[in-house]
Design a protein that fits this description.
single chain, 449 residues, alpha+beta, Ubiquitin-like (UB roll), Creatine Kinase, Chain A, domain 2, 2 domains, eight-stranded mixed beta sheet, 14 helices, 14 strands
Length: 449
């Protein structure tokens, strides 16, 4: 959306009384300001300012103690400018309100490389330099939760007045139990231009999944996921319960994942993963190899929180072995079946608690490294990957931080400043989370991630 189009949107929506301007921090949290509508033109034309350090806060919203962005620089400001998305309605609020997504730059116009949206931009620029365009879509799992009592429960169904007592995989009844919520959610997605597709009931207690449609603009795909998470959580509260993308709210049920499907188009619009058959091209194998090579060191992106590692239990719908396979959901990388023209890679490792910008940057960046190096993967596995002797992803938060910090593979994908900021953030969170009980973890993560 152009600046003039953004202003025009506001003129066409005079009922909007205030706006929110928000950018994603490293944890995927929206950070920004509330502004009266009469000052919106100034924000559109000139942007706004807040400290660079605001995009580098911990999960509690606190400064990072050792961050060079705070006292060492006098807590200097950055300039935040509107993204291409322009204004969007915020249907989860009672008063008519618009959201303006923004991202951060330096005063001289350079991107602030600590901004996670810029991390994805960097990767996409590498693709463009090779005449390539990623096409990406995300599948997001989340829980609907009644958190009003001492323990988490499935909300009471507005239709039956009862609670589900067990998971119901792909149950129409489970979807119908919250029909008004899902109807309002799809209406809100239409209003926000988020391409929400199929919804299903999942394997967890009160767990659902919604797929977002493939986009040939990966920045927009990440925007969609970020906005969708904000919308689902906000709209659920309006319906009287919570929605959470935390990785593992219930000990006895599977956690929530965020799967990304992607292919790559050449300059003529051809899918480079398509060889006309079911196995896929050399380029597909190279991209798979890149994803496998980076998987161990990427786990801080795919499992960024203390609770993330409770989800990574072998045999519980969360891949832990580093492998790939054709049409096999026990593998970390799955090549779905279907028409050759739609040949794609499904990356299945991440939890629902990820930052979508960092997640997509890590996945697409790893795939591009494999394409550039013409890497070859090991043989695809068959059968139950959980039962195989495979190299494993890090099983602890601290191990994942160490692997990410020292990784040449990650240095190839992410700017050194972002890597430093993320490591400092996570080390601070590890320190303060060491005395936190599992129940307190739920309270921290339920509404944030």
């Amino acid at each position: 959306m152009s600046l003039n189009s953004a202003k025009s949107w506001l003129r066409k929506n005079p009922q909007v009384r205030t706006i929110r301007i928000a950018a994603s921090d490293l944890n995927g949290q929206p950070r920004g300001k509330r502004v009266p509508t009469r000052f919106a033109d100034k924000v559109v034309d000139d942007g706004t300012r807040f400290p660079l350090s605001v995009l580098n806060l911990d999960i509690w919203g606190e400064d990072i103690d050792d961050s060079p962005l705070v006292f060492d620089t006098g807590d200097a400001d950055g300039v935040l400018r509107p993204t291409e998305r322009g204004f969007l309605p915020m249907p989860w609020l009672s008063a008519p309100t618009a959201l303006l997504p923004i991202w951060m730059f330096h005063d001289d116009g350079r991107p602030f490389e600590g901004d996670p949206r810029h991390a994805l931009r960097r990767v996409l620029e590498r693709y463009r330099a090779r005449g390539l365009t990623p096409v990406a879509a995300m599948e997001l799992e989340f829980f609907l939760i009644d958190d009003s009592g001492k323990t988490l429960e499935v909300p009471i169904s507005p239709r039956s007045g009862k609670r589900r007592k067990a998971a119901e995989v792909m149950s129409i009844r489970a979807l119908d139990a919250f029909d008004q919520f899902f109807t309002d959610l799809y209406d809100a997605c239409e209003a926000m231009d988020i391409p929400a597709d199929t919804a299903i009931s999942e394997a967890g207690l009160g767990q659902f999944e919604i797929n977002l449609v493939h986009q040939d603009d990966a920045l927009r795909a990440a925007d969609d996921a970020w906005l969708f998470k904000m919308l689902v959580k906000g709209l659920a509260r309006r319906h009287g319960f919570a929605a959470s993308f935390m990785a593992k709210p219930y000990e006895d049920y599977p956690g929530s994942g965020l799967h990304v499907h992607f292919s790559v188009l050449d300059s003529d619009g051809r899918n480079i993963f398509n060889d006309g058959g079911p196995r896929g091209s050399d380029a597909l194998r190279h991209a798979v190899a890149g994803c496998l090579d980076a998987m161990h060191d990427s786990m801080l992106i795919f499992a960024p929180h203390a609770n993330s590692y409770d989800r990574l239990v072998p045999g519980n719908h969360a891949p832990t072995g580093i492998c790939w396979a054709y049409e096999n959901r026990t593998a970390a990388i799955r090549i779905p079946s279907g028409a050759p023209g739609a040949r794609r890679i499904e990356h299945r490792v991440a939890g629902g608690d990820v930052n979508p910008y960092l997640h997509l940057a890590a996945v697409l960046g790893a795939a591009l490294s494999g394409l550039e190096d013409r890497s070859e993967p090991p043989q695809p596995v068959t059968g139950n990957a959980y039962a195989l002797d495979l190299p494993q992803v890090p099983s602890t938060w601290s191990t994942a931080i160490d692997a990410f910090e020292k990784s040449p593979v990650m240095q190839r994908i992410f700017h050194q400043d972002l890597m430093r900021n993320l490591v400092l953030t996570k080390r601070q969170e590890v320190f303060y989370m060491s005395d936190v009980t599992p129940q307190e973890q739920v309270e921290i993560y339920l509404d944030t991630v």
